[in-house]
Amino acid sequence: MEKTNFRKIIGTNEYKFIVLGDPHIDSDYSDKKLLKKHLQFAVDNNIDVYCIGDMLDVMQGRNDPRRKNKQDKDHYFNHIINYITDFLTPYKDVIKFISYGNHETAVIKNNDLDLLEIIVNNLNLLGANIKLGSYSGWWQFRLTHGTANYGYKVNYHHGFGGGGKRTKGLIQYTDRQVGLGDVDMIIMGHVHEDTDSYHTIEYINNKGIICEKDVIWTRVSSYKNENIGNGWAVEKGFNPKPVGAKLYTINYNKHIGITETQITRLGRLC
After folding, report:
1. What does the alpha-carbon distance between residue 159 and residue 172 come to, in Å, rounded to a whole number?
2. What is the per-residue pLDDT for 234?
3. 98: burial class by Cβ within 10 Å (0-12, 13-18, 19+)?
Protein backbone atom coordinates (compact mmCIF):
# COMPACT_ATOMS: atom_id res chain seq x y z
CA MET A 1 0.00 0.00 0.00
CA GLU A 2 1.25 3.49 -0.88
CA LYS A 3 1.47 6.14 1.82
CA THR A 4 -1.95 7.73 2.31
CA ASN A 5 -2.61 11.33 1.28
CA PHE A 6 -6.22 11.90 2.36
CA ARG A 7 -7.73 15.20 1.20
CA LYS A 8 -10.99 16.75 2.32
CA ILE A 9 -12.48 20.06 1.22
CA ILE A 10 -14.29 21.51 4.23
CA GLY A 11 -15.94 24.49 2.52
CA THR A 12 -16.22 26.48 5.76
CA ASN A 13 -13.76 28.07 8.17
CA GLU A 14 -14.29 25.44 10.90
CA TYR A 15 -13.86 21.68 10.99
CA LYS A 16 -14.48 19.31 13.89
CA PHE A 17 -13.30 15.73 13.92
CA ILE A 18 -12.77 12.98 16.47
CA VAL A 19 -9.66 10.79 16.47
CA LEU A 20 -9.68 7.32 18.02
CA GLY A 21 -6.43 5.69 19.01
CA ASP A 22 -6.19 1.98 19.75
CA PRO A 23 -9.81 0.95 20.44
CA HIS A 24 -8.88 -2.78 20.53
CA ILE A 25 -12.61 -3.48 20.24
CA ASP A 26 -12.46 -7.27 20.50
CA SER A 27 -10.29 -7.23 23.65
CA ASP A 28 -11.89 -8.12 26.97
CA TYR A 29 -10.15 -5.02 28.36
CA SER A 30 -11.67 -2.62 25.81
CA ASP A 31 -14.13 -0.10 27.29
CA LYS A 32 -16.80 -0.71 24.68
CA LYS A 33 -19.43 1.21 26.63
CA LEU A 34 -17.33 4.38 26.51
CA LEU A 35 -16.42 3.85 22.86
CA LYS A 36 -20.09 3.49 21.90
CA LYS A 37 -20.91 6.67 23.83
CA HIS A 38 -18.25 8.64 21.93
CA LEU A 39 -19.29 7.21 18.56
CA GLN A 40 -22.93 8.03 19.27
CA PHE A 41 -21.87 11.56 20.23
CA ALA A 42 -20.25 11.82 16.80
CA VAL A 43 -23.44 10.59 15.11
CA ASP A 44 -25.68 12.96 17.08
CA ASN A 45 -23.50 15.95 16.21
CA ASN A 46 -22.48 14.88 12.69
CA ILE A 47 -18.77 14.86 13.52
CA ASP A 48 -16.32 12.91 11.34
CA VAL A 49 -14.37 10.10 13.02
CA TYR A 50 -10.82 8.96 12.20
CA CYS A 51 -9.03 5.94 13.68
CA ILE A 52 -5.22 5.75 13.52
CA GLY A 53 -4.67 2.06 14.13
CA ASP A 54 -5.37 -0.92 16.36
CA MET A 55 -9.10 -0.81 15.82
CA LEU A 56 -8.68 -4.56 16.36
CA ASP A 57 -6.90 -6.51 19.08
CA VAL A 58 -6.83 -9.95 17.38
CA MET A 59 -4.38 -11.65 19.74
CA GLN A 60 -6.16 -15.00 20.03
CA GLY A 61 -5.38 -16.52 16.64
CA ARG A 62 -4.00 -20.04 16.50
CA ASN A 63 -0.51 -18.89 15.48
CA ASP A 64 -0.33 -15.88 17.79
CA PRO A 65 2.27 -16.29 20.60
CA ARG A 66 0.25 -13.81 22.71
CA ARG A 67 -2.74 -16.16 22.69
CA LYS A 68 -4.08 -16.81 26.18
CA ASN A 69 -7.14 -19.01 25.80
CA LYS A 70 -8.43 -21.39 23.20
CA GLN A 71 -11.33 -19.67 21.51
CA ASP A 72 -14.75 -21.27 21.52
CA LYS A 73 -15.20 -20.01 17.96
CA ASP A 74 -14.32 -22.53 15.24
CA HIS A 75 -13.35 -19.76 12.82
CA TYR A 76 -11.72 -17.05 14.92
CA PHE A 77 -10.91 -14.55 12.16
CA ASN A 78 -14.37 -14.92 10.61
CA HIS A 79 -15.81 -14.17 14.03
CA ILE A 80 -13.65 -11.02 14.34
CA ILE A 81 -14.74 -9.76 10.90
CA ASN A 82 -18.44 -10.25 11.67
CA TYR A 83 -18.21 -8.89 15.22
CA ILE A 84 -16.35 -5.69 14.31
CA THR A 85 -18.53 -5.06 11.26
CA ASP A 86 -21.68 -5.38 13.39
CA PHE A 87 -20.17 -3.21 16.14
CA LEU A 88 -19.31 -0.33 13.78
CA THR A 89 -22.36 -0.47 11.50
CA PRO A 90 -24.53 1.93 13.57
CA TYR A 91 -21.77 4.56 13.27
CA LYS A 92 -20.67 3.89 9.68
CA ASP A 93 -21.89 7.23 8.29
CA VAL A 94 -19.54 9.32 10.47
CA ILE A 95 -16.48 7.06 10.25
CA LYS A 96 -14.38 8.52 7.45
CA PHE A 97 -10.95 7.00 7.93
CA ILE A 98 -9.40 3.84 9.43
CA SER A 99 -5.69 3.04 9.21
CA TYR A 100 -3.48 0.15 10.25
CA GLY A 101 -1.83 -0.41 13.60
CA ASN A 102 0.68 -3.04 14.63
CA HIS A 103 -2.07 -5.46 15.70
CA GLU A 104 -3.58 -5.49 12.20
CA THR A 105 -0.22 -5.72 10.42
CA ALA A 106 0.83 -8.64 12.66
CA VAL A 107 -2.11 -10.66 11.33
CA ILE A 108 -1.15 -9.79 7.74
CA LYS A 109 2.44 -10.86 8.42
CA ASN A 110 1.62 -14.14 10.15
CA ASN A 111 -1.58 -15.19 8.38
CA ASP A 112 -1.59 -13.45 4.97
CA LEU A 113 -5.00 -12.03 5.88
CA ASP A 114 -5.97 -8.36 5.86
CA LEU A 115 -8.85 -8.18 8.34
CA LEU A 116 -9.08 -4.39 8.24
CA GLU A 117 -9.50 -4.30 4.48
CA ILE A 118 -12.34 -6.82 4.69
CA ILE A 119 -14.10 -4.92 7.49
CA VAL A 120 -13.82 -1.55 5.70
CA ASN A 121 -15.11 -3.14 2.48
CA ASN A 122 -18.05 -4.63 4.42
CA LEU A 123 -18.97 -1.25 5.89
CA ASN A 124 -18.64 0.50 2.53
CA LEU A 125 -20.95 -2.09 0.97
CA LEU A 126 -23.47 -1.10 3.65
CA GLY A 127 -23.32 2.53 2.49
CA ALA A 128 -20.33 3.95 4.35
CA ASN A 129 -17.59 5.98 2.68
CA ILE A 130 -14.51 4.99 4.66
CA LYS A 131 -10.95 5.48 3.45
CA LEU A 132 -8.52 2.69 4.39
CA GLY A 133 -5.22 4.34 5.27
CA SER A 134 -1.62 3.21 5.52
CA TYR A 135 0.22 2.87 8.85
CA SER A 136 1.42 6.45 8.46
CA GLY A 137 0.34 9.21 6.12
CA TRP A 138 -1.24 12.64 5.69
CA TRP A 139 -4.59 14.36 6.03
CA GLN A 140 -5.12 17.67 4.22
CA PHE A 141 -8.12 19.77 5.23
CA ARG A 142 -8.98 22.74 3.01
CA LEU A 143 -10.64 25.43 5.16
CA THR A 144 -12.39 28.42 3.58
CA HIS A 145 -13.19 31.87 5.00
CA GLY A 146 -14.81 34.11 2.42
CA THR A 147 -12.55 34.14 -0.62
CA ALA A 148 -9.50 32.99 1.34
CA ASN A 149 -8.56 29.39 2.12
CA TYR A 150 -6.00 27.49 4.14
CA GLY A 151 -4.68 23.96 3.73
CA TYR A 152 -4.34 22.45 7.20
CA LYS A 153 -1.83 19.59 7.09
CA VAL A 154 -1.83 16.70 9.57
CA ASN A 155 0.80 13.96 9.62
CA TYR A 156 -0.50 10.86 11.35
CA HIS A 157 1.43 7.77 12.44
CA HIS A 158 0.06 4.86 14.45
CA GLY A 159 3.18 5.00 16.62
CA PHE A 160 6.26 3.04 17.58
CA GLY A 161 8.36 2.20 20.63
CA GLY A 162 7.22 1.72 24.19
CA GLY A 163 6.41 5.27 25.27
CA GLY A 164 8.27 5.28 28.56
CA LYS A 165 6.80 5.79 32.03
CA ARG A 166 8.32 9.25 32.34
CA THR A 167 8.55 10.61 28.79
CA LYS A 168 5.16 9.12 27.77
CA GLY A 169 6.37 8.96 24.18
CA LEU A 170 6.94 12.70 23.80
CA ILE A 171 10.54 12.29 22.67
CA GLN A 172 9.33 10.34 19.63
CA TYR A 173 7.86 13.54 18.20
CA THR A 174 11.31 15.06 17.83
CA ASP A 175 12.20 12.13 15.57
CA ARG A 176 9.04 12.66 13.49
CA GLN A 177 9.48 16.44 13.25
CA VAL A 178 13.01 16.15 11.86
CA GLY A 179 11.80 14.17 8.86
CA LEU A 180 8.78 16.32 8.03
CA GLY A 181 8.46 19.62 6.19
CA ASP A 182 5.53 22.00 6.42
CA VAL A 183 3.03 20.49 8.87
CA ASP A 184 0.43 21.87 11.28
CA MET A 185 -0.12 18.81 13.46
CA ILE A 186 1.62 15.51 14.17
CA ILE A 187 -0.65 12.91 15.73
CA MET A 188 0.19 9.42 17.02
CA GLY A 189 -1.24 6.65 19.18
CA HIS A 190 0.19 3.21 20.06
CA VAL A 191 1.59 3.83 23.56
CA HIS A 192 -1.86 4.44 25.14
CA GLU A 193 -0.90 7.86 26.50
CA ASP A 194 -2.61 11.26 26.20
CA THR A 195 -0.32 14.25 25.68
CA ASP A 196 -0.33 17.57 23.84
CA SER A 197 2.70 19.74 23.22
CA TYR A 198 3.84 22.44 20.80
CA HIS A 199 6.99 22.85 18.74
CA THR A 200 7.66 26.21 17.11
CA ILE A 201 9.29 26.30 13.68
CA GLU A 202 10.60 29.16 11.57
CA TYR A 203 9.91 29.22 7.84
CA ILE A 204 9.56 31.52 4.82
CA ASN A 205 6.05 31.72 3.38
CA ASN A 206 5.13 31.92 -0.30
CA LYS A 207 5.33 35.74 -0.12
CA GLY A 208 8.95 35.62 1.04
CA ILE A 209 8.14 36.67 4.61
CA ILE A 210 9.85 35.05 7.60
CA CYS A 211 7.19 33.46 9.83
CA GLU A 212 6.89 31.27 12.88
CA LYS A 213 4.34 28.53 13.42
CA ASP A 214 3.44 26.30 16.36
CA VAL A 215 3.26 22.66 15.30
CA ILE A 216 0.93 20.64 17.51
CA TRP A 217 2.33 17.36 18.81
CA THR A 218 -0.66 15.35 20.00
CA ARG A 219 -1.05 11.79 21.27
CA VAL A 220 -4.37 9.92 21.36
CA SER A 221 -4.83 7.32 24.09
CA SER A 222 -6.72 4.02 23.97
CA TYR A 223 -9.95 2.34 25.01
CA LYS A 224 -8.01 -0.58 26.46
CA ASN A 225 -7.96 -0.50 30.26
CA GLU A 226 -5.65 -3.26 31.49
CA ASN A 227 -5.32 -1.98 35.04
CA ILE A 228 -7.93 -4.44 36.29
CA GLY A 229 -7.25 -7.48 38.47
CA ASN A 230 -4.52 -9.76 37.20
CA GLY A 231 -2.80 -9.64 33.86
CA TRP A 232 0.27 -8.63 31.90
CA ALA A 233 0.08 -4.87 32.55
CA VAL A 234 -0.51 -5.29 36.29
CA GLU A 235 2.32 -7.82 36.66
CA LYS A 236 4.70 -5.47 34.82
CA GLY A 237 3.90 -2.70 37.31
CA PHE A 238 2.40 -0.35 34.74
CA ASN A 239 0.38 2.57 36.03
CA PRO A 240 -3.21 3.15 34.87
CA LYS A 241 -3.46 4.62 31.37
CA PRO A 242 -5.85 7.33 30.16
CA VAL A 243 -8.86 6.00 28.26
CA GLY A 244 -10.80 7.79 25.53
CA ALA A 245 -10.48 9.84 22.34
CA LYS A 246 -9.96 13.47 21.31
CA LEU A 247 -12.14 16.04 19.57
CA TYR A 248 -10.22 18.53 17.42
CA THR A 249 -11.72 21.84 16.28
CA ILE A 250 -9.82 23.76 13.61
CA ASN A 251 -10.84 27.37 12.94
CA TYR A 252 -9.39 29.54 10.19
CA ASN A 253 -9.78 33.32 10.47
CA LYS A 254 -8.62 35.23 7.39
CA HIS A 255 -8.99 38.63 9.08
CA ILE A 256 -6.24 37.98 11.60
CA GLY A 257 -4.42 35.44 9.44
CA ILE A 258 -4.27 32.58 11.92
CA THR A 259 -5.58 29.08 12.34
CA GLU A 260 -6.68 28.10 15.84
CA THR A 261 -6.90 24.49 16.99
CA GLN A 262 -8.86 23.49 20.07
CA ILE A 263 -8.33 20.04 21.58
CA THR A 264 -11.03 18.50 23.77
CA ARG A 265 -10.41 15.24 25.56
CA LEU A 266 -13.26 12.71 25.52
CA GLY A 267 -12.48 10.77 28.67
CA ARG A 268 -13.71 7.84 30.66
CA LEU A 269 -16.95 7.29 32.52
CA CYS A 270 -16.76 6.94 36.31
Report:
1. 9
2. 62
3. buried
User: Pick from 25, 21, 84: which is nearest to 49 by CA?
Assistant: 21
Q: Cα–chain-centroid distance for residue 160?
A: 13
* 242 burial type by CB count under 10 A (0-12 exposed, 13-18 middle, 19+ buried): middle
Beta-strand pair 258-266/131-133 = unpaired
What H or E segment, with its residue span, contains residue 85?
helix 76-88
- Residue at 98: amino acid letter: I
Asked if residue 222 lies in contact with residue 194, where contact means CB atoms within 8 angstroms, the answer is no
Type of residue numbered 164: G
- Give the pTM: 0.91
8 A C-beta contact, residue 226 and residue 232: yes
Q: What values do phi and psi take at 192, rounded to 5?
A: 60, 40
- Residue 269: half-sphere exposure toward Cβ, Cα within 13 Å: 8
CB of 220 within 8 A of CB of 194?
A: yes
Which residues does the chain have with pLDDT short of 70?
69-74, 163-164, 166, 229-237, 257, 269-270
> Domains plus CATH for the chain?
4-266 (3.60.21)
